[in-house]
Design goal:
Blueprint (H helix, E strand, L loop, with lengths): L1 E6 L2 E4 L4 E9 L6 E7 L6 E6 L6 E3 L7 E6 L4 E6 L8 E8 L4 H5 L8 E2 L3 E6 L1
């Protein structure tokens, strides 16, 4: 079992930046693939980014590529999402998720069913 707690959300103007952090407790953090998802009002939850167990591999949704960066610190049990050049369409509740799965291919598909544990979410609002 692992508990995930997100922080760092807030209100920012378009073009601004925010850094989300996900703190994990429980089992060995390095055994999890970590992902970030988001859900806007009236929309389905969508994949944002994923990072491999050691942090050596990352993958992003096209909508955030070049603007967002996912990272992790296995010594601190954290996974962060640096968001730059934010746009109003980035407004959503952002969730971090942890997967015990061994298939990086499934992780690249952005399939939310690949993930075993979810945080409670943090609101990001980007004003125009």
């Amino acid at each position: 079992q692992v508990q995930l707690v997100e922080s760092g959300g807030g209100l920012v103007q378009a073009g601004g930046s925010l850094r989300l952090s996900c703190a994990a407790s429980g089992r060995t953090f390095s055994t999890y693939v970590m992902g970030w998802f988001r859900q806007a009002p009236g929309k389905e939850r969508e994949f944002v980014a994923v990072i491999s167990w050691s942090g050596g591999n990352t993958y992003y949704a096209d909508s955030v590529k070049g603007r967002f960066t996912i990272s992790r610190d296995n010594a601190k049990n954290t996974a962060d999402l640096q968001m730059n050049n934010l746009k109003p369409e980035d407004t959503a509740v952002y969730y971090c998720a942890a997967s015990l799965g061994s298939s990086w291919y499934r992780a690249l598909r952005g399939d939310h069913t690949f993930y075993n544990y979810w945080g409670q979410g943090t609101q990001v609002t980007v004003s125009s």
